[in-house]
Design brief:
Layout (H helix, E strand, L loop, with lengths): L3 E6 L2 E9 L2 E6 L11 E2 L2 H13 L8
Length: 64
């Protein structure tokens, strides 16, 4: 299993997620994805879904 993944949404790089002790931390590639900056996700797929929700204007559910 990889320690980092590039997250893309509609052919646009949203950011990368890097594995740490708590899960996968998101680092935004542009201001559009800044609301996800620093969030921890259980896996890369969860981070990708959050980035897609952000693009489509859906409300983000912050991880606890």
């Amino acid at each position: 299993m990889s320690d980092s993944y590039v997250i893309e949404v509609s052919s646009q790089t949203a950011g990368i997620v890097v594995r740490d002790i708590s899960g996968y931390r998101f680092f935004a590639a542009s201001h559009r994805f800044a609301p996800l900056e620093g969030q921890i996700f259980r896996n890369a797929r969860e981070a990708e879904r959050a980035a897609r929700r952000l693009v489509t204007g859906q409300t983000l559910q912050m991880a606890s």
